[in-house]
Amino acid sequence: MPRKSNKQAKGQLDNLNQTHGKVEKPLTLNQVWGDDGKSKYGTLDVEKYSDYLNDLNKSDLQAHAVKIGLVPIDDRNSLVTRLKKEFNKYASQYSARALPTKKDISKAAKDILSEGR
Q: Which residues have CB under 8 Å from 61's CB, separation 6+?
């Protein structure tokens, strides 16, 4: 069997994503029941949602705002800003929170902590 070329292997490595290796725990009751968060906006990606909003005309934007639960306003820029703000709040509920990073402890602090062993 012929060996794979390096170009093909490099192309496969570019397509891989890094993972954190943690088990994702549900953060809300909706997630426990199987909601992945895409039902309200159709996506959780900020760029896709921004592109979607840019493709809508003013009346469609106002209809979308009513569907989301916002009172539509006449100014397009303000409405888009409010919709993006609400989307970011909603999307943050479905993303895992980052764990705090480990801080370096001085030798004196380590000595104090090791006294209790």
A: 53, 72, 76, 79, 80, 83
pTM: 0.54
* Rounded-to-integer distance, Cα 88 and Cα 49, Å: 10
Distance CA 56, CA 49 (A): 11
Give the tens place of pLDDT for each residue, 59-113. Answer: 999 999 999 899 999 999 999 999 999 999 888 877 765 556 677 888 898 888 8
Q: Which residue intervals of the chain are DSSP H helices?
A: 6-14, 29-32, 38-41, 46-55, 58-68, 76-93, 107-114
In angstroms, the CA 88 to CA 112 distance is 43
